[in-house]
Specification:
heterodimer, A: mainly alpha, 2 strands, B: 636 residues, mainly alpha, 27 helices, 4 strands
Chain lengths: 499, 636
């Protein structure tokens, strides 16, 4: 079984998700089933995390079967440390979402759960596919459950948001498919490993880079492709927002590190300045935009974009680092920072969206101007909110500090200006996070807000476990750092060899 | 054995914080306070053992890592400790003051609903401070640095319903974040230069660096810039002009906190950091001049504000800023031990002053306005005595602790013998006069004269829990100056520290008594007596000339307005970016605009496919003509 663990991880949630569609009698049973399935998936990913050999540079748990021979398409799965960690993040988040969902009042509960289970399996597929077409299929299919989640269970303006989300990301995906087809036409393989060995000319690489980078930049999203995200978040139900922020954005980042940097490094290095500047704009400009948002979800959405700016900054700094220092370790530091930021942001943003969602459930508003002094009514919730807001502004001791530190460090080695702009997030993120806290949590309770229900047991468990993860990742980052170190070194070698 | 003691100090503190934070309601407040105090007391005893060890074993530096925070190729950051005389001394001071404040808080906070939350915070604060002090690398220092900032934020906003409190804590955090942004860049600059975050490796790599051959940016060398950025972090934390604006507002927090965090320990973290990095700072010649000037300006100009404020806690807060200015200016001439000596004496007498103020405030049922006090000497004799001791220390009355430390700063400043240091010496001397005036003003207005707040009979001393910390601190304030030779003679894990001319205790005292500082003392006494004891202040200030000056000072030089304008500007920018640029241009014009254009375009095409045969016939012929035209053109 351990050899086929990836297939289990992918297909268990997908098949059980399809099966759950036919059961809608009893909500309690449905909740129980949903949690159990997600828990099994989480447990499997734990096994995967444990049995993965960190010291090897090869892809592991490989499954390779011929799928469509005439088109050279294989059912080819395998993971390295990056994928393992992302799969682990994914299954934790979906487990937490399944717990959270069971506290909600829902229409069509079984369909809702089915969508999430589908999304769970498909994301694992994205992270473990080593055949470009297989990756593309998972990547595209992932849009369907997300489209449904936003479009059916979303807020008032959900149709606009879901269609915008769908068309926008789909547009990028077409470019991605074209790029894959072009690569296949010259090396006649969709295998990622042979992608890595390909040798395209500079012009070809540039065009391939542009096509793929736009696809993933929309997904992350990078400035100026970011406007779909706030809309999608505002309309999405809470659990949808959690998955969107914690998982879906990471798919874009994963695309960069798996398909863009190692496959077309020459193209990336000739256009990297452009992307560094876009990342810095995301960090500074989008952070500033977040300050005056009146919708809490929008605020956190913008802060997500700003934080993802760090991820892309870390990715694209590597070419500048290579030019200026020629030290491979610096590149590894930069990539480690990005990876850490990806994982950390997954947990922090998930927790923040759960906090906001719970406030919405209780007071039926997400507007900051309608809220004040929630600490008076729900102290437990509020302290968790304060904690995650502080984590969001990169407080040392929480996970977000680690990634930001490494990326600021890497950016200083390339240019003082980059480091200066990147570190301005210390101020900007503190302004939007803590000003939010001041207005919503502190102060006198606003008249008319009536609710005596503090966090219930399940919510306490959810928030506490997220807080614990954020703290552990912040206090002892070395576990994850060494876990992915060999993989990142290998990746760096691959990239350096080609430029 | 010693290692175990060192490790158990932070563990005890974090345990105390967790127990207080998560305990059930079964634990009564008093018991919680006692448990918390005992845990801190045990760590204090441990720190004393460590202190004893480092002062009895010459050249002994305890150094190890608890664990590796990050260890990947090219980047090694550990979490550990480096105990030398500097950190051992600082740990003792922090834990002692923390213990005293713990005991005091049991009495002071006894009626608070969030009693345990308060104790959880101060334990967490002590933990972060210890983390900062015992750190053996810059990253751990930064973690502790932000940690104390965080607890300061939480404690200033302890009374979260008060609008002024939650404004003050946001302000404090954001101003500190401005400093931290530069601080982190400074740390990274040092790392890039010396290739390590670890103090030991850093300082040994420093010897390999060719200082004269460093890169220059805009005429400043690399170390200067790095030290400058680090110092901006210290300016925010240690409240130096212009980043001092958060400290007076931080008085919104409970009074024990003002004593512990905003007077004795956290605000001195900046001084500690510079002293710790002194091997680097001695190469930063331009930056140390900058430090010197900032320190002197802060010492004088913020001290002047204290003369005009009427809030008992804010007066002491301004005096804290001013005293920090003294320490900073001593850093500016590389006299790190001297600065650290003042830090150490100041910790006792300033904590004492704040706790006395707390006792007064409590006795007066949370009145902080000194214009409604007066004549409290008879009703609060013990508090009055302790406050008097604190005042004598801060004005540098001979043989009190403040006399030794402040005089030493003035001495070395005079001895430095450059134009700049002489100028600073003059500023500090005027500052000493100002210190005398505002300190005596406070004690005259509060404890002498007649009571202006109603029935004085209702006022009485608080319980023993409140008073015993005062007595401990008063004793320490009186005697702590006599260990001056320890500070003068023992460089604390530093290289190339300035030699200080010191010929023994008695010559120092007699020299100090005969120095110009004594003149400021006497002059200050008569000014304060004339103005405040004899109540001539009103007529004095009605002088047209002094009125204008006092207006400027009362406006606090408009620093608050400056930061307010900055935040307004940021909000306006954000609003503009969010509504105009992000929504209007990117979203409406480009993202949703393109589909609209495509839609429009498609209506043209729609009209082409009309269903009329002659339209199609025409199109076919037209296309054929075009195609043939192209082919012909190519052939020809």
């Amino acid at each position: 079984m351990i050899n086929n663990i990836l297939s289990f991880l992918i297909w268990l949630p997908i098949i059980s998700g399809l099966m759950i569609l036919f059961y809608k009698r009893n909500d309690a049973v449905l909740n129980f089933l949903n949690i159990i399935i997600n828990f099994i998936v989480f447990f499997l990913s734990l096994i995967l995390l444990n049995s993965y050999n960190q010291t090897s540079t090869n892809f592991q748990f490989i499954e390779n079967t011929n799928w469509i021979p005439s088109l050279n398409i294989y059912y080819f799965l395998g993971v390295d440390a990056i994928s393992v960690l992302l799969i682990f993040l994914n299954t934790i988040i979906f487990l937490i979402v399944s717990l959270y969902n069971s506290t909600l009042n829902l229409k069509n509960r079984n369909q809702y759960y089915a969508s999430f289970l589908l999304a769970n399996g498909l994301t694992i597929g994205v992270f473990s596919a080593l055949d470009a077409i297989l990756f593309y299929i998972f990547f595209e299919a992932l849009l369907i459950p997300m489209f449904l989640i936003i479009g059916i269970w979303g807020g008032a303006n959900r149709i606009y948001a879901s269609i915008k989300f769908f068309i926008y990301t789909f547009l990028g995906s077409i470019l991605l498919l074209i790029a894959f087809l072009y690569i296949n036409s010259s090396i006649s393989s969709f295998n990622v490993l042979s992608f890595y060995e390909s040798n395209f000319s500079l012009i070809e690489q540039e065009w391939l880079f542009i096509a793929m980078a736009i696809a993933f930049a929309i997904k992350i999203p990078m400035f100026p492709f970011h406007t779909w995200l706030p809309d999608a978040h505002v309309e999405a139900p809470t659990s949808g927002s959690v998955v969107l922020a914690a998982i879906l954005l990471k798919v874009g980042a994963y695309g960069f590190i798996r398909y863009v940097l190692p496959v077309v490094p020459l193209g990336a290095s000739s256009l990297d300045m452009f992307f560094i500047i876009l990342s810095l704009i995301a960090i500074v400009y989008v952070g500033i935009v977040a300050i005056t948002q009146n919708d809490m979800k929008k605020l956190i959405a913008y802060s997500s974009i700003s934080h993802m700016g760090f991820v892309t900054l870390g990715f694209f700094l590597i070419f500048q680092l290579f030019d200026s220092t020629k030290i491979q370790n610096d590149i590894v530091v930069s990539l480690s920072g990005s990876m850490y930021q990806i994982i950390s942001h997954g947990f922090v943003s998930a927790a923040l969206f759960i906090c906001v969602g719970s406030i919405y459930d209780r007071y039926k508003t997400k507007k900051i101007s309608d809220l004040s002094g929630l600490l008076n009514q729900m102290p437990v919730y509020s302290w968790f909110f304060v904690f995650f807001a502080l984590a969001n502004c990169g407080l040392p001791g929480t996970s977000s500090f680690v990634g930001e530190l490494l990326i600021i460090l890497a950016s200083f080695k390339t240019s003082f200006i980059f480091a200066f702009l990147a570190s301005s997030t210390l101020i900007i993120s503190a302004v939007y996070s803590l000003w939010l806290v001041k207005r919503v949590i502190y102060g006198e309770l606003k008249a008319g807000l009536n609710n005596d229900i503090d966090a219930n047991f399940l919510e306490k468990i959810i928030l506490f476990s997220l807080a614990l993860i954020v703290l552990i990742l912040g206090i002892y980052p070395d576990y994850m750092m060494t876990y992915m170190n060999i993989t990142l070194q290998n990746l760096t070698n691959n990239i350096i060899l080609k430029i | 054995m010693l290692e175990n003691l060192i490790i158990s100090i932070p563990i005890l503190l974090v345990l105390s914080s967790a127990v207080m934070g998560f305990s059930s309601s079964k634990l009564t407040n008093i018991n919680a306070g006692i448990i918390s105090s005992i845990l801190v007391f045990i760590s204090f005893i441990f720190s004393l053992v460590i202190f004893y060890y480092s002062f009895t074993n010459e050249n002994s530096i305890l150094y190890d890592d608890f664990y590796q925070w990050i260890s990947i190729s090219g980047l090694n950051i550990g979490m550990g400790y480096l105990i030398d005389k500097l950190s051992a001394m600082m740990m003792v001071v922090v834990l002692l003051i923390s213990f005293v404040v713990h005991v005091y808080s049991i009495g002071y906070m006894r009626d608070e609903k969030d009693f345990k939350r308060f104790f959880s915070y101060i334990a967490l604060f002590t933990f972060s401070m210890i983390l900062l002090v015992m750190s053996n690398n810059l990253i751990q220092l930064f973690i502790g640095w932000e940690g104390v900032g965080l607890v300061s934020y939480l404690l200033i906003g302890f009374f979260y319903k008060k609008e002024s409190a939650i404004k003050a804590n946001l302000k404090a955090f954001l101003i500190n974040r401005i400093g931290d942004m530069f601080f982190i860049i400074g740390i990274i600059m040092i790392f890039v230069l010396l290739d390590s975050f670890d103090y030991k490796t850093m300082f040994s790599n420093l010897k390999l660096v060719d200082i004269s051959n460093l890169e220059y940016y805009y005429g400043f060398n690399y170390i200067d810039i790095a030290c400058f950025f680090l110092f901006i972090g210290a300016m925010a934390k240690s409240a130096q002009i212009p980043l001092h604006v958060w400290l007076p507002d931080s008085m919104e927090g409970p009074t024990p906190i003002s004593a512990l965090i905003h007077a004795a320990t956290m605000v001195t973290a900046g001084i500690f950091m510079v002293a710790r990095l002194s091997p680097v700072y001695i190469y930063a010649e331009v930056t140390t001049d900058f430090i010197l000037i900032i320190g002197a300006l802060t010492a004088l100009f913020i001290g002047v504000i204290a003369i005009f404020d009427n809030d008992i806690k804010k007066v002491i807060a301004y005096s804290t800023i001013s005293q920090l200015g003294y320490m900073v200016s001593a850093l500016g001439i590389n006299a790190y031990t001297v600065s650290f000596f003042h830090l150490y004496t100041h910790a006792f007498f300033k904590a004492l002053l704040f706790l006395c103020a707390g006792s007064v405030i409590m006795s007066l049922h949370h009145n902080q306005d000194i214009t409604k006090m007066g004549g409290l000497r008879k009703r609060l004799p013990i508090t009055h005595f302790c406050f008097l001791v604190g005042t004598l220390c801060i004005i540098g009355f001979p043989l009190t602790s403040g006399f030794f430390s402040k005089d030493l700063i003035l001495e070395v400043m005079l001895y430095e013998n450059t134009d700049l240091s002489f100028f600073v010496y003059i500023l500090l001397l005027i500052g000493a006069l100002v210190t005398t005036v505002y300190s005596l003003r406070l004690i005259f207005i509060v404890f002498y004269g007649t009571y202006r707040g109603g029935d004085i009979k209702k006022i009485h001393e608080e319980s023993f829990v409140i008073l015993s910390p005062l007595i401990i601190l008063a004793t320490l304030s009186l005697i702590s100056g006599f260990v001056i030779h320890t500070f003068v003679e023992l460089p604390i894990f530093m290289f190339g520290v300035k030699e200080i001319h010191y010929e023994g205790l008695l010559p120092f005292i007699s020299h100090g008594v005969l120095s110009p500082a004594s003149v400021t003392l006497i002059a200050g006494f008569f000014i304060a007596k004339h103005l405040y004891l004899d109540n001539k202040e009103i007529s004095f200030l009605s002088n047209k000339y002094f009125k204008k000056i006092s207006m400027i000072i009362k406006s606090k030089y408009k620093f608050d307005e400056f930061f307010l304008n900055c935040s307004d500007f940021m909000k306006a920018t954000s609003y503009f970016a969010a509504t105009k640029f992000d929504i209007k241009i990117i979203d409406s014009f480009i993202v949703n605009g393109l589909p609209r254009k495509i839609n429009k375009l498609s209506t043209y095409f729609k009209s082409v496919s009309s269903g009329y045969l002659y339209h199609y016939a025409f199109l076919i012929v037209f296309s054929l003509v075009v195609i043939f035209g192209i082919i012909l053109a190519r052939v020809l």
